[in-house]
Amino acid sequence: MNENSMSGVPAVRVSIESSCERQVQEVSLDGVETYVPPLSMSQNLAKLAQRIDFGQGSDSDEEDPNGQSRVSDWSKQDLEGEEGLVKFQPCSWPWDSVRNHLRSALTEMCVLHDMLSVIKEKKYMALDPVSQDPIVVKTPQVFQLISKKKSLATAGQLLLRGAEKLSKSVAESQEQWRQRDFNAELLHLRSQWKLRKVGDKILGDLSYRSAGSLFTHHGTFEVIKNTDIDLDKKIPDDYCPLNVQIPSDLEGSAYIKVSIQKQSADIGDLGTVNLFRKPPKAKPGSQVWHLKLEAAQNVLLCKEIFAQLSREAVQIKSHIPHIVVKNQIISQPFPGLQLSISLCHSTTDKKNQRASPDKTKPDDHLYVLEHNLHQLIREFHKQTLSSSVMPHPASAPFVPKRLRMAGPMAYDKSEISSLQHSEGLLEKIVKQAKHIFLRSRTARTIDSLASRIEDPQIQAHWSNINDVYESSVKVLITSQGYEQICKSIQLQLNIGVEQIRVVHRDGRVITLSHQEQELQDFLLSQMSQHQVHAVQQLAKVMGWHVLSFSNHVGLGAIESIGNASAITVASPNGAYAISVQRGNIDSKQ
Amino acid sequence: MEAPPVTVMPVTGGTINMMEYLLQGSVLDQSLDSLLHRLRGLCDNIEPETFADHELVYLLKGQQGNPFILRARRSLAHPTAPWHLRYLGQPEVGDKSRHALVRNCVDVAASHSLPDFLNEMGFRMDHEFVAKGHIFRKGALKVVVSKLSRVLVPGNTDNTEPLSLSYLVELSVLAPAGQDTVSEDMRSFAEQLKPLVHLEKIDPKRLM
């Protein structure tokens, strides 16, 4: 500090020079001097500050206490250093603390430097090599650690601030996204369902009216924006900003059940069919509302089918009236047999559980008929759509063209009524049920015969190509091992709705009724006939003589179908004779 | 030969007394496409159909009172289709609040010998015209957009001349008498066609 006051003396001189004399920038040819304009206070300060050489300045400070090394060097530097420091002093108040700090730091650094240089010469001081390492190494490590810690803390703070901003903006955009998402969902909904705006509501149409349905249910649903979600909580995965509200009577799931049973003695417990399917599993990628709407539309269609069937059941006059009880329609296709069509509609899970005991019952669904019912109602829809043909000439009213032809073509009553009459859903489905029943029973009859009787063999070849009202089966009766000798009997059975037509290979056609016994008897008689023929063929091959052969002998017990036939054969040498008579019940030998 | 007595009593069609509810308007030829486009959007989803009809209007004049008018119409596009004979009554007066013109209407499908039959009965053809255009339906509503043409040579429908540069637009419903709700439906449908065409209740008597 003494140095400072000492160096103040020459500083006065320097400052006077600088303030009085301006530097000559240029001397022109005519001797005029151009001066450099004097620096302003701040410019001057900046200029001076640039000239500060702290290292040198402090070195000079350190010189006195140590005072031994490189005196010549220091003296030179001293002058410059002093000059710089002095120039800077008078106007250095705002910089004072900075300067002081730097100075103290430099002082310490210089002490350190000098000590090191002293130690280096090893004349006056020596450092223990063991203790030297920790001192030299430790200090910078601590420094490094602290600086590292500080910079890391700053960096960490910056990152935290950034993260905060990001999370805020994410939350904001999510809110916007949700808003946009509703509109996107609405657009999606619009592309699949009919929507219209009524007041401030968005209503949709579930009904099949545009497809030709005449069902009176309005079938409207409402589109609701799903807003009851907490923004702070995590959004559930199945969250959908759009929800639909369907009429309460279309909720849940429904299906039509068709079954054929042996007639129950009592119909008191009818009308309470309660079989429910599990709710369909959500297909991946389809929205909740879509599943809901599809289920509701299915309920609507089932209701329409059932309404149509029950209307027809009441209107149509049949020999055995159809019974409509609660959610069940019962019809008698054949005596002792009942066809029941029921509408099963489950609204809540609770009911589902209650109905679970019923599930233990055998599953007697006739899926084919259920499917056909759906197909039939759609055909019906299509018919109503296509029936609306434009009238020609254009002034004519909207009536079916054939009906308009009735007057000019002078149709009579029967022709008109035949025009108007079309088979209803119920009639068609009853016919289909009859056919299905007849077919399955025919198959069962043939199978049971085939398993019961080993000789001759019965083979049945069912045709793949069939109709809802007709199918056919080819029946072959053969004797195993003797196919070469005796021809097999081939029968073509055409199974219809009410009866079975049998076509022989020789073209004879026999019509059997729906009674199981008739078919069985017929097949038995064919089999026994085949046996007699086989005996005849075999006798010929073996060289036996046929003494007599008759397909219709008037002997024995009267058979219900056909007459008994008999054959008598004699051995080649005539020593033995065998007589075979066959009847439908059994063959005697 | 004396003309048969003519009754001025309204004709009723059998047991059900059908009424025609009618709104009419017209559209210039240039705007036809946009109107058809709008109608296709509004009406039932059936393939749009065109028609070409020939209408003959027959009169039976009595000694006194108004002549009795019958309209016979046949389709030129479907020659085998039956003829259409139509009686239209006088528009019902009264009820100004009703949105559509209401008149008695009897529709009969007839065989192809209808003109001869009418002639035999003493009817005389008053005028004839050809109407070609488009027909739409929406439920019970029938919309007919047609161009009317004058027949230059009587009976020859190939030689015609358009009556005007516009198309006639008719919105009609056939309903039993007293069902005034249909006129409400018609009005709301007509609203949807604005401003392409203004369908109004036009009293033909005022124009005569």
Detail the topology: elements first, then pairings:
The complex is a heterodimer of chains A (589) and B (208).
Chain A: H1 2-20, E1 24-27, E2 33-35, H2 41-51, H3 54-66, H4 71-88, H5 96-121, H6 129-192, E3 194-198, E4 201-205, E5 220-225, E6 242-245, E7 253-262, H7 288-315, E8 323-325, E9 328-331, E10 337-346, H8 349-354, H9 367-386, H10 401-406, H11 413-420, H12 425-452, E11 457-462, E12 471-478, E13 489-495, E14 500-504, E15 509-512, H13 516-542, E16 545-553, E17 564-570, E18 577-582, E19 587-588
Antiparallel strand pairs in A: 1-2, 3-4, 4-5, 5-6, 7-10, 8-9, 9-10, 11-12, 12-13, 13-14, 14-15, 16-17, 17-18, 18-19
Chain B: E1 18-28, H1 32-42, E2 49-60, E3 68-75, E4 83-91, E5 101-110, H2 114-121, E6 124-138, E7 141-151, E8 160-162, E9 166-176, H3 181-193, H4 204-207
Antiparallel strand pairs in B: 1-5, 1-9, 2-3, 2-6, 3-4, 4-5, 6-7, 7-8, 7-9
Written description of the protein model:
The complex is a heterodimer of chains A (589) and B (208). Chain A has 589 residues and is α+β, with helices and mostly antiparallel strands. Chain A has 13 helices and 19 strands. Chain A has helices at residues 2-20, 41-51, 54-66, 71-88, 96-121, 129-192, 288-315, 349-354, 367-386, 401-406, 413-420, 425-452, 516-542, and strands spanning 24-27, 33-35, 194-198, 201-205, 220-225, 242-245, 253-262, 323-325, 328-331, 337-346, 457-462, 471-478, 489-495, 500-504, 509-512, 545-553, 564-570, 577-582, 587-588. In chain A, a hairpin with a 4-residue loop joins β13 and β14. Chain A is elongated. By secondary structure, chain B is an alpha+beta fold. Chain B has one domain: Hypothetical Protein Pfu-838710-001, CATH 2.40.320.10. Chain B contains 4 helices and 9 strands. Chain B has helices at residues 32-42, 114-121, 181-193, 204-207; strands at 18-28, 49-60, 68-75, 83-91, 101-110, 124-138, 141-151, 160-162, 166-176. Chain B has an 8-stranded antiparallel β-barrel. In chain B, β2 (49-60) and β3 (68-75) form a beta hairpin. The longest helix of chain B has 13 residues, at 181-193. The interface between A and B is medium-sized, with 19 and 33 residues. Chain B: Its main location: nucleus. Chain B: Keywords: Activator, Nucleus, Transcription, Transcription regulation. Chain B: Belongs to the Mediator complex subunit 18 family.
